[in-house]
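Crash report, auto-generated. Payload:
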Amino acid sequence: MNLIILTDEDRVSPDRYELQDERFRHICSVLSVQVGDHLKVGVLNGPVGRAEVVELTDSKVTLLCEELAESPQDPLIVDLVCAVPRPKTLRKVYGVAAAMGVRNIHLVRANRTDKSYLESPLLKSDGFLPHLIEGLAQAKRTRLPVVAVHSLFRPFVEDELPEITSGGNEITLKLLADSESSSRLQDVYAKPVGRIVLVVGPEGGWVPFESGLFIKQGFRPYSMGPWTLRVETAITAGLAQIEQVRAMLDG
Amino acid sequence: MNLIILTDEDRVSPDRYELQDERFRHICSVLSVQVGDHLKVGVLNGPVGRAEVVELTDSKVTLLCEELAESPQDPLIVDLVCAVPRPKTLRKVYGVAAAMGVRNIHLVRANRTDKSYLESPLLKSDGFLPHLIEGLAQAKRTRLPVVAVHSLFRPFVEDELPEITSGGNEITLKLLADSESSSRLQDVYAKPVGRIVLVVGPEGGWVPFESGLFIKQGFRPYSMGPWTLRVETAITAGLAQIEQVRAMLDG
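Recovered output after restart:
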């Protein structure tokens, strides 16, 4: 926890926040703070700065925010589309996506999505919020990714995705991770890019009908390298390579 | 498990292997094979190919290898140096490093390495082998990374690392991941590269003495992007970006 993330629910007055959960335990046992100490804090979807520990009891800590300012964070331009994975994987997907600055996470039911995965409480906000916030806290970010679950594949790809990818005057780069492709990211990259939508398949990949539908919508298959990666690892690798190519080609 | 990895210990005759552990359970319950079916197999540090299920009991499966051939795997050129992390992280480091084709994993005791981490059974081969093999099985690789543990930081960096990084006539690229650096990978990349040594710090980073010692040995600090990443995520991102830059610059 490199940043203590504060939410509206923690707020007891305009600049005071009371914490009683994991964050309280982290502040006590890992950071070992005392009254009068200062902590790095960030308001969810808001500014970052410092807070003073003004009260500390056996069950809660009270923080007084001071010097909060908009953080100079890079604009979030990547949306992620992936198949609803098993819950164990989904937790990791949330953590990595939040930490690496994904703006929207679209989870779609794929042919290889086990029906039981759709019942996971992780698909509801009470389920995903803690994992997203943990990712933000690790990465010192405050902008919460927006999670959307799509239980019908074809209407999502044919009807909703075109709206998601229409960026007005900006170029939207539509990327389909595909370990079998002979193209690499630099081959399908078009600059200047306003937005990027990255599609990462499930374990075992999309079935041909699914990848075909993405390609029909203008998504360009490319390989990240000579690897067969787990979903969460592929997402990390994909986001890392996008950042690398942007740094090299967009300067 | 995308590839069943076979080891010498499983071998009961030149081309027969008996499995009784996780792999046996995976073959029965996930792959649901029957006698006569074929599986993708790979011999640890050896060829890959197919094997026929010739016997299946309640407690073991017997595989008969056929058509094994050297796999056309990319040469492994990246060595990883990182601080001994907490066991939970170390398991993930092993999995990712094996899956992404790291050749040597050097674990060094850093200032921020908790003393207790050095007692972990994961630092002994019985401890790390299963995690490395799981990473290989996921990635369909057979080349096992070599793990070395270095309990003295300074002698490792000053005496052993120069030997590790001396590549004869080849250029060895010495990379020090550093989120504070204003350089990016393309700025410190020198081609053609024969070998790469990637240094990734512990949670909280190297202390200045440590990073200074790496720099004195010719390691070049660079940032992967606007991120504060967990160790295993930083390793994934670092390896993904190295692959990306190689594809673009060595093409």
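Post-recovery validation: Helices of chain A lie at 22-30, 87-99, 125-139, 153-165, 185-188, 208-216, 231-250.
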